[in-house]
Amino acid sequence: MIQRSARFGNLVRAFRLASSSSSSKIGGYYGLASQASSSLQQVDAEYANVDWDNLGFGLVPTDYMYIMKCSKGEDFEQGQLSDFGNIELSPAAGVLNYGQGVYEGTKAYMKEDGRLLLFRPDQNAIRLKISAERMCMPSPSIDQFINSLKQTVLANKRWVPPPGKGSLYIRPLIIGSGQILGLGAAPEYTFLIYVSPVGNYFKEGLAPLNLYVEDEFDRASLGGTGGVKAITNYAPGLKALTRAKNRGFSDVLYLDSMKKKSLEEVSSCNIFLVKGNSISTPATNGTILAGITRKSIIDIARDHGYQVEERVIMVDELIHADEVFCTGTAVGVAPVGSITYQGKRMEFKTGAQTVAQELYSTLEAIKKGLIEDKKGWIVEIGRGLALLPTTWLQMIVLMFVSSRGHEGRVLVWSIM
Q1: To the nearest 10°, the Cα dihedral for 279, 281, 285, 291?
Q2: Rounded distance, CA 383 to CA 112, Å?
Q3: Closest C-alpha to 272, from 303, 313, 212, 320
Q4: pLDDT tens, position by position, 28-83
Q5: Alpha-carbon distance 159 to 153, whole Å?
Q6: Could you tell me the CA-to-CA distances from 161 to 56, 114, 118, 156, 199 in Å, in that order?
Q7: Do 346 and 338 contact (CB within 8 A), yes or no?
Q8: Catalytic residue among 229, 259, 275, 375
Q9: Of 29, 63, 133, 344, which residue is 20 to 30 A from 353 by alpha carbon distance?
Q10: 43, 42, 16: which is closest to 399 by C-alpha?
Q11: Is there a contact between 334 and 325 (Cβ–Cβ < 8 Å)?
C-alpha cells in the first residue's frame, strides 16, 4: 500500500507538471474530467488492430516490455516498462557465447467484465528460480516476478484478446547480458518480459495431434538440464522436430536417453496416458520438465475421481492406452489422435466424452474465471480506473490521462 501510494504521488506530481504548461483554467478541468471520464469508460473496450478470429501462435509486437537488471552477486531491484523493441547486447554477452539464459511462459485472460486474470504465476516464479539456480544466475523474488507480470499485462491491456478469442502469452526471461570471454558466469543479468496475443499453438488447432516417437535423438539426460527451462534445451531438438514435421507429424515424443524404452516428453509439453479410470504420466526425475499445466491437470483429475500415477511408462504401454493427451502452457490440453513408433501407427480415442476433453474444460473454465476457483490459482490484476477510491482522486487521474493520452493510461495502469 505504501509503495502504491508513493507511486500515485508521483502520478499526481507528474500531472501537476503536465498541467502547469497549459493555459487552461481550473474551472475548465471539470469539463475536461467529464469528457475524459467518458473516453476512459471506453478504455477497457479499446482493442488493438488485430484479426482476433485468426490468431495463431506467432509473435505480434505489442506496446511495452519490462526490463530489470542486476550485477553478479546482487539482487534484482526496481525494473521499469519500456517501449517494445530490440535490446542491445555486447557480442561477448554470456547468453550469446555460453547460453546462460532461462525463461518461463504463462498467459493472461480477459473476462467478459474486462477483468484480467493470471493463472498460478507464483508457480512460474518458483520454477524460474529453480532454473536460474541451475544455470548459476540470480532471479527476481516471487513478489517482484508477479508484480512485473501485472505491470506488463496492464500496460499492454489492449492486446489481450477478447473473451473466447485467445490469450495474452507472457514470456519472462533472464539472460546473462554482461560480457565475458572465458567460460564463467556473466557479470550482469537482465530480466525482461514481453507479451504477444496468441491463439492455438499447433497448426491443427484443437484437432488431435499425430506424434512421432523419436528413437535416434535425445532430448535430455540424467544430470543435465532437462528438468529446468534453460534456453539451451530447445535448439538441439529442432532437427528431430523439423524431420518429423516434414513427414507430416505434429511433434516428437522423446524416449529416455539410456535405454530408449521409456516415455519422457514431447518437444514442448508433457504427456499423459489414460486407461479406464487410471491416468499415468512420466515422473519428473530430472530429465522431464515439471509443467505447471501438468501439475494442475493432475490435481483436477484427482478431484474428478481418477487415479493418477507419476511413474516410469514404457513405450510398449502405448498400445494399451485408451487415450493420450499432452499438456503445457502453450498447448493447454491437446488430445493425441495417433502415435507412430518404429513404423507402427497406434490410434487413440478423441473428441467429446473423453477424459482429455473433461479435464480441458475444467482447466479452461478456471483459467477464464467461468467457474469458482477453489484452489487459489487465479490472480486478478485490475479492472481499470474504477478501482480508485475517491471522486477527486479519479478526477485528477482522468485529467492526467486526457492530457497525456496513451502514455497517461500506461502510467495509471502501472499503479493498479
Answers
A1: -110
A2: 11
A3: 313
A4: 333 333 333 333 333 444 899 999 999 999 999 999 999 999 998 899 998 999 99
A5: 9
A6: 12, 11, 14, 11, 9
A7: yes
A8: 229
A9: 344
A10: 16
A11: yes
pLDDT in tens, 226-258: 999 999 999 999 999 999 999 999 999 999 999
- Record the cell numbers describing residue 63, joined without a space: 506496446
Q: How far apart are CA 137 and CA 387, in angstroms?
A: 37
Alpha carbon 298 to its chain's center: 19
User: What burial class does residue 27 get, using C-beta atoms within 10 Å of its C-beta: 0-12 exposed, 13-18 middle, 19+ buried?
Assistant: exposed
Over residues 309-363, the pLDDT tens digits come to: 999 999 999 999 999 999 999 899 999 999 999 999 999 999 999 999 999 999 9
Three-state DSSP state, 167: strand
Amino acid at 111: K
Residue 235 DSSP class: G
Q: Helix, strand or coil for residue 51?
A: coil
User: Is 229 labeled as catalytic in the residue annotation?
Assistant: yes
CA 396 – CA 49 distance, rounded (Å) = 29
